[in-house]
Amino acid sequence: GAELMRARIRDGWGLRVFRAMVKAQGGDPRVVDEPDRLPKARRSRTVRASRDGVPVVIHDATVDRTTDGSGAVAALTLAELQRLDAGYRFRGLDGARWAGRGLRIPTLLEVLRRFPDCVFSLEIKQEQPPCEAAIVQALRMTGMERRVVLGSARHAIFQRIRALGPDLPTFFSF
To answer: What is the pTM (predicted TM-score) of this model?
Structure first.
């Protein structure tokens, strides 16, 4: 909660990201020293690309740990990814299995459309196939350019993001 945010801000962690998120919400970026006033709907997500270049929201490089399938996200088409059961390996707090409930790996566009009031920090981890242009296009299609902060730990990806969207908030992760 707020105490963790205060500690991170005191340590200088992610200051630029937090300021961008606050500004994206229409707030004053100088309030980062007051975490209770930061936007409540913040989400940090990893974006990868399917073999056919569609941005999908999934943390792992492979689908093995989170679905009933196996293989690298980058090696599967969007159609193949969306046939997988993303609830297969999970259980609810009550112990009930989530398998067979229709959960699938969402595209970035689906997530942006489903949560238009959220502020996102999106990290792009995969260089091939490149998906930066599709991500920027999704942001522009949904009007989320000021509600999403884009970043990567890979210099080549970061440079492509900056070239495609010099007006977009960015961060370099490490």
So the answer is: 0.74
